[in-house]
Design goal:
The complex is a heterodimer. Chain A has helices spanning 30-43, 63-79, 93-105, and strands at residues 2-5, 8-13, 18-25, 50-61, 83-88, 110-113. Chain A is of the alpha/beta class. Chain A has one domain (2-113): 2-Layer Sandwich (Transcription Regulator spoIIAA), CATH 3.30.750.24. By secondary structure, chain B is α+β, with helices and mostly antiparallel strands. Chain B has three domains: 11-164 and 208-251, no CATH class; 171-206, no CATH class; 279-512, Phosphatase 2c, domain 1. Chain B has a five-stranded antiparallel beta sheet. In chain B, strands 2-3-4-5-8 form a five-stranded antiparallel beta sheet, with helices on one face. At the A-B interface, α2 and α3 of A face loops of B.
């Protein structure tokens, strides 16, 4: 299952229980990010009680995109019961700052930086 | 009211409705031409063989006629399959079949007049085919070709007239005279035989009435089928016209709605841009009592991005500086920017408060307004800073701060990553906010910017980036805030080229005055 969002792709990977992001995501506004929010909402519960959000191959995410992911994380935090892991890369500049913000929003997140 | 968002292009649909009967008509007429042609050629061969026992020129006709029949059969097959939906037609094949069939028909129309065994009768009868063909050519190949055929067939008629001579009169025999002549011929009368040879020589061979009857019947069928399909097309076109007009009206209405919507959005963006620029500090306000020089600039994107900066000199001789970037674009982002500016001022103007406490207060008020009142999810990254006599205190997570150390003549990038988090996204960010003291000596310069600067794209979509920014900063920081800003903006626009800027580009820089000479 793959969602194309501009120059980026969001893929549901059954083998690693993860939702993988790749490419460069710079949709124009929050309204355009609704498709990504819906994808996360729809498939976030596929693997029962654990989920990996894998950003390693996502070269760029703009502020509307970061808001979209933040809101998803805050929603997971509110609902509880989900073990969320966020994977990222120290090589990609936006991830250093933004992924640790996700952990600030919900300290239960497991953050794996490669 | 029609739904403005439906995706069907009503004008395209209307166009197709009008074109559809016409497209079918040409094809149907062509099929009729092919079918009648094949039938009449076969009939002609049969009549020839029955009447004369042989073809006029067997060597030629045994190749010529089957070839014409074959071409017509191919065209018939193709067009029939397209019409019945069994195959997809192509424009090229449509053209080739139409032209081949019509050219053959034209050739035959000329031949039957000029290669006839009885020129007089060919002018009286066979030329009728040229007349009928005029109509068929017009429908299948268009007006220009019809004009050309009109000229060709007119010339053909003139040539036939010239060949037979203006003084020629066509005399008919009574049936009794014909019988007498035929009897004499049967008896082997020399005069009669001589007369027949002369008739052949003058191309006035008598023909049976059945032949002319058959020829006219074929012409009639030809004309009838063409008229039948043509008038069918006209009535079908007339039938769809009211629907087509309705669709054109819908399209017109949609166009007007779209125009109004565009105008409304344009006005909204105009308002947003005005709000955003209106609330920025005047340059006169940049005069602080602590001996600093300030320069700032904001270039809003065409779809305004909600950037802001603030500079507030305080009674205690300090000054508050802020810079921020609201997510998303448009009027709502402008409003959030306006609120951020107002709350910052309400919280800190003439009211000394710890920066983390102030920023958390700004956060909470913004969160409540954005979520509960605007029902929106916009948030922002922002830095609050206090400039004092000998230090700069910063709080909040935003882009890196660039610092020029005058004493060491070196430049540094200061991360704000650990000083905060998004403002307005959650109700309380107190635990994430920290302040940091930075040195402020004579000649030092600090530069703050929003991501519109580093994420400005060149025509290939590459980012301007921090490295390039740092390079320009290093080369120009010692020249003071104004010249530095000019150098950076000039460089960004050179990088961007003809591409439109997608996000606001905002920067504010200040420099502590040089040590006074003592």
């Amino acid at each position: 299952m793959t969602l194309k969002a501009g120059d980026a792709e969001v893929t549901l990977d059954e083998n690693s229980s993860s939702i993988k992001f790749s490419g460069s995501m710079r949709l124009a506004n929050m309204k355009e990010y609704e498709q990504v929010a819906d994808f996360l909402k729809e498939h976030g519960n596929t693997f029962d009680d654990s989920l990996v959000l894998d950003f390693e191959n996502l070269q760029f995410l703009n502020s509307s995109g970061i808001t979209t992911i933040s809101l998803f994380i805050l929603n997971c935090k509110k609902n509880g019961g989900l073990e969320l892991t966020v994977k990222g890369s120290n090589e990609v500049s936006w991830q250093q700052k933004s992924l640790s913000n996700f952990k600030k929003l919900w300290p239960n997140i497991k953050l794996e930086m490669n | 009211m029609e739904n403005i968002n439906h995706n069907d292009d009503v004008l395209l649909e209307a166009g197709q409705m009008l074109a559809e009967p016409g497209r079918d008509t040409s094809r149907k007429i062509l099929i009729a031409v092919n079918a009648v042609f094949i039938a009449s050629l076969v009939l002609f061969l049969v009549i020839q063989l029955i009447n004369f026992g042989t073809l006029p020129d067997p060597a030629r006709d045994l190749i010529f006629y089957p070839l014409l029949i074959l071409i017509n059969a191919l065209s018939l097959n193709y067009n029939f399959r397209v019409l019945s939906g069994k195959t997809q037609g192509t424009i090229k094949k449509d053209k080739v079949t139409a032209w081949a069939s019509i050219l053959i028909a034209m050739l035959m129309a000329l031949l039957i007049v000029h290669a006839s065994i009885n020129t007089a009768m060919s002018m009286l009868v066979d030329f009728g085919f040229s007349v009928i063909l005029l109509f068929v050519v017009g429908t299948v190949l268009g007006r220009k070709t019809a004009v050309i055929w009109f000229i060709i067939s007119g010339l053909s008629l003139a040539v036939a007239y010239y060949n037979i001579g203006p003084g020629f009169e066509y005399h008919l025999l009574t049936q009794e005279e014909v019988t007498a002549f035929n009897d004499a011929l049967a008896k082997g009368d020399l005069d009669a035989e001589e007369r027949l040879v002369e008739l052949q020589d003058k191309r006035l061979v008598p023909g049976p009435i059945l032949l002319y009857f058959t020829v006219w019947m074929i012409f009639m069928i030809f004309a009838f089928l063409a008229v039948y399909f043509e008038s069918n097309m006209i009535s079908r076109v007339l039938n769809v016209i009211p629907t087509v007009i309705e669709k054109i009206n819908i399209a017109n209405e949609e166009k007007m709605q779209l125009k109004n919507e565009n105008m409304r959005m344009g006005m909204e963006l105009d308002v947003a841009r005005k709000i955003q620029l209106m609330m920025l500090p005047n340059e006169q306000e940049f005069v602080a009592q602590i001996g600093i020089e300030v320069a700032a600039r904001m270039d809003p994107a065409s779809e305004v991005g909600g950037d802001f900066y603030e500079f507030l000199p305080q009674k205690d001789k300090s000054a508050i500086l802020a810079i921020g970037d609201v997510t998303d674009h448009g009027l709502q982002s402008g409003l959030v920017m306006l609120m951020a500016q107002s709350i910052t001022r309400a919280t800190l103007d003439d009211h000394r408060m710890e920066l983390p406490k102030a920023l958390n207060r700004i956060n909470t008020i913004l969160y409540r307004n954005i979520r509960n009142r605007m029902e929106d999810f916009r948030n922002l990254t922002m830095i609050l800073a206090r400039i004092e006599e000998d230090k700069l205190t910063v709080c909040g997570q935003h882009e890196n701060i660039l610092y020029f150390d005058a004493e060491k003549q070196s430049c540094k990038m200061i991360s704000t990553e650990d000083l905060g988090i998004y403002i307005g996204l959650i109700e309380d960010v107190g635990e994430h906010l920290r302040e940091q003291d930075l040195p402020l000596n004579h000649g030092d310069l600090y530069f703050f910017y929003t991501d519109g600067l580093t994420e400005a794209e060149d025509p290939d979509g590459a980012f301007y980036g921090e490295d390039r920014l740092m390079e320009v900063f290093e080369n120009n920081a010692s020249k003071g805030p104004k010249k530095l800003l000019k150098a950076i903006y000039d460089d960004v626009y050179q990088f961007v080229g003809k591409r439109e800027i997608m996000d606001d580009i905002t920067a504010i820089a200040f420099k502590k005055n040089e040590k006074p000479e003592s």
